[in-house]
Amino acid sequence: MKYKNAREILPAPLVEELQKYIQAGYLYIPAKTKCRKSWGELSGYRKELDARNTKILSEYKKGASVEKLAEDYHLSVYAIRKIIYQK
What we know:
Elements: H1 6-9, H2 12-19, H3 45-61, H4 66-73, H5 77-86
Helix pairs in contact: 4-5
C-alpha cells in the first residue's frame, strides 16, 4: 500500500476536518466491500498456488506419497494433507 499526502488529493476543507481527529499520523481508509480484491488477486499469487495445489493433487492421485510430495514441494506433511483433502 502506498501512502499519499492528503493535501495532494483531498479538498482543503476536508483535510481541515480530518485534522480535528488526527494530526500528522497515518489514516487507513478501507475499500468499499464491493471493491475489495481477494487475497492474491492483484499479484496473481492465488493463481500460482491453485495451479501448484492442482498439480500436487494430481501427483497424489497417481500414487505419489504424502511424504514425497512434502519433500518435493518443500511443504510439511500437514500442508500436503490439507491441500489433498480440500480438493
